[in-house]
Design brief:
151 residues, mainly alpha, hpI Integrase, Chain A, 2 domains, three-stranded antiparallel sheet, 3 strands
């Protein structure tokens, strides 16, 4: 089953409303017909069903990573989609991580327990990711402030 993203539907609705407005201005439809037809509400919702809890990192599902190109589909704030590319060794690191993580469906970045168990169906919070990155930076001698905002 194919679904259309809410933003795409809303753009089409805006175009239809403009056509209706033009028809009304040209006298092709009366005010009542224009008002009723143009009064269709915008669509709300997420571009895809998500199993993760609000506040989790939306860095994509494992299936959103293209190992060939290093591209990751990311859903960000406001349900906006973008493609980012793993660079500067990031692709090689992601490839190694995915070998450890396994092929189970779920979040690309997921928690690992102290015993080493990977919870592929869970996802980590942005704060937990930031803390881990800052800890690793300190371990290898990278100065504070280098790890940026992921929002």
């Amino acid at each position: 089953m194919t679904t259309t993203a809410p933003a795409t539907v809303n753009k089409a609705l805006a175009a239809v409303r403009e056509v209706l407005r033009a028809a009304w201005r040209l006298g092709l439809i009366d005010t009542d017909a224009y008002t009723r037809a143009a009064n269709v509400r915008n669509v709300k919702g997420s571009r895809r069903l998500r199993a993760h809890v609000r506040g989790r990192v939306a860095l994509g599902e494992a299936a959103d990573y293209d190992a060939e190109t290093g591209a990751v589909r990311v859903i960000g704030k406001g349900d906006k989609e973008r493609i980012v590319y793993a660079t500067n060794g990031g692709k090689a690191t992601l490839d190694v991580w995915l070998a450890v993580r396994g092929e189970a469906e779920g979040s690309l970045l997921c928690p690992v327990s102290q015993s080493g168990h990977v919870s592929a169906r869970a996802s980590i919070t942005a704060q937990a990711l930031m803390v881990r990155l800052q800890r690793r930076c300190q371990q290898v001698g990278v100065k504070d402030g280098v790890v940026g905002n992921f929002g």
